[in-house]
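A reminder from the course coordinator: this example appears on the midterm review sheet, so study it carefully.

Given structure:
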């Protein structure tokens, strides 16, 4: 039997999604902010990728954009985790929203190839700020929902990310393919302001463990070291924090770069392939959104069931990549992309759920920030490698087949560990 940490509790899915949104005002406003903010995020991503591809005509340059998007929050993560465990988490969320609203307006200044460097700089600043937002948002969730609501809140939040990916990417691709990229940046800025407004309506009291934390610089260093020490002492938690990173390295980040090439060079729909790119992102959103909701009907929030579903997720992602590699038609590409999204959704949502159930509040921000650091670093690595190999003779199909084969390795190791440790 696996040794269960003293903080672990068995959480049953006792609260439904509608009941959660109606009955928990704090979560409702946090959720509203997430909906509107994510809509703008996907507008921004589609527009940024299309703009770089249009100005440079280089797979390496597009890969560079995704490297910047991932590397910036990685560099911020050590500070972000300590901040999330020291200060009022609601105020952190509002401050990051307002800051990003100002930064994204700078994207309007990028209009010619010689200004692409500015887009990279602004992207780094925007995503660096996001490096504070996302770990804090994960950390605040158990502060505003009960144990009975936690599973539903995590699943609904993750499904919302996916639904807004589908809707935002589709609308963003349509807007970019029809009117160009500038409207998307304006919309993104406005959504950050609206998100901050919703979060301000959320009732929130800083937990005592945060309010009483030592706020000195020396204490910050000690807290960061304590967070790393906690992961070293809890190997199971450390492995879970690496799951998103493995998927980012082998599946999602490289595929984002490859999607741009498929849309711009193979199946071109709309101006610069903006519509076809938006459709691929939309299908990913459908897959990542539906799979955890459906799977949770069978897994509930049971520890072992969640872990088995994660292994299934790796297999689904690998299958999806292989199907896309056939490149025989755009509908088949979308079908494979759907399977890839299903796999990503299972790994992402259920690894988050395990951390929410297993990690104590006093280190939750640092654990999620460390997870985000691993994720962003591997995302940057995956995007860089994909962008580089796309400019070689291996080609889109060859890269996808290699990705599919490599994805089976961490999935197999995860299931093997589950069998050997006889996890409940």
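Designed residues:
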């Amino acid at each position: 039997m696996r040794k269960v940490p003293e903080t672990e509790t068995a959480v049953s899915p006792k609260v439904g999604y509608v009941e959660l949104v109606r009955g928990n005002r704090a979560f409702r406003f946090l959720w509203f902010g997430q909906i509107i903010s994510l809509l703008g995020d996907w507008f921004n991503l589609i527009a940024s990728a299309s703009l770089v591809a249009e100005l440079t005509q280089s797979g390496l340059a597009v890969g560079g954009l995704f490297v910047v998007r991932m590397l910036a929050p990685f560099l911020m993560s050590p500070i972000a985790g300590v901040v999330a465990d020291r200060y009022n988490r609601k105020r952190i969320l509002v401050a990051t929203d307002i800051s990003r609203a100002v930064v994204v307006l700078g994207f309007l200044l990028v209009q010619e190839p010689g200004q692409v460097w500015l887009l990279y700089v602004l992207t780094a600043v925007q995503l660096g700020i996001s490096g504070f937002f996302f770990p804090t948002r994960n950390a605040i969730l158990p502060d505003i929902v009960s144990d009975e609501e936690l599973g539903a809140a995590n699943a609904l939040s993750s499904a919302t990310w996916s639904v807004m990916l589908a809707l935002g990417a589709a609308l963003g691709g349509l807007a970019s393919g029809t009117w160009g990229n500038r409207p998307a940046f304006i919309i993104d800025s406005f959504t950050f302001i609206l998100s901050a407004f919703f979060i301000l309506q959320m009732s929130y009291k800083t937990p005592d463990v945060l309010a009483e934390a030592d706020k000195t610089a020396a204490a910050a260093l000690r807290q960061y070291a304590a967070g790393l020490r906690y992961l070293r002492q809890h190997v199971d938690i450390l492995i879970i924090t690496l799951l998103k990173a493995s998927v980012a390295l082998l599946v999602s980040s490289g595929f984002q770069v490859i999607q741009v090439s498929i849309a711009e060079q193979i199946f071109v729909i709309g101006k610069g392939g903006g519509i076809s790119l938006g459709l691929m992102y939309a299908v990913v959103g459908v897959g990542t959104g539906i799979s955890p909701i459906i799977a949770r009907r069978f897994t509930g929030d049971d520890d072992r069931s969640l872990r088995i579903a994660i292994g299934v997720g790796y297999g689904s992602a690998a299958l999806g990549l292989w199907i896309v590699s056939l490149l025989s038609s755009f509908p088949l590409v979308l079908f494979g992309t759907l399977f890839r999204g299903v796999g990503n959704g299972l790994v992402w949502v259920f690894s988050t759920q395990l951390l929410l159930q297993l990690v104590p509040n006093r280190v939750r921000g640092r654990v999620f920030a460390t997870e985000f650091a691993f994720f962003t670093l591997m995302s940057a690595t995956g995007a860089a490698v994909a962008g580089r190999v796309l400019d070689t003779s291996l080609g889109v199909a060859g890269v996808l087949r290699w990705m599919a084969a490599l994805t089976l390795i961490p999935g197999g190791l995860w299931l093997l560990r589950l069998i050997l440790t006889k996890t409940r």
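The CA atoms of residues 178 and 263 lie 15 Å apart. The chain has 16 helices and no strands.
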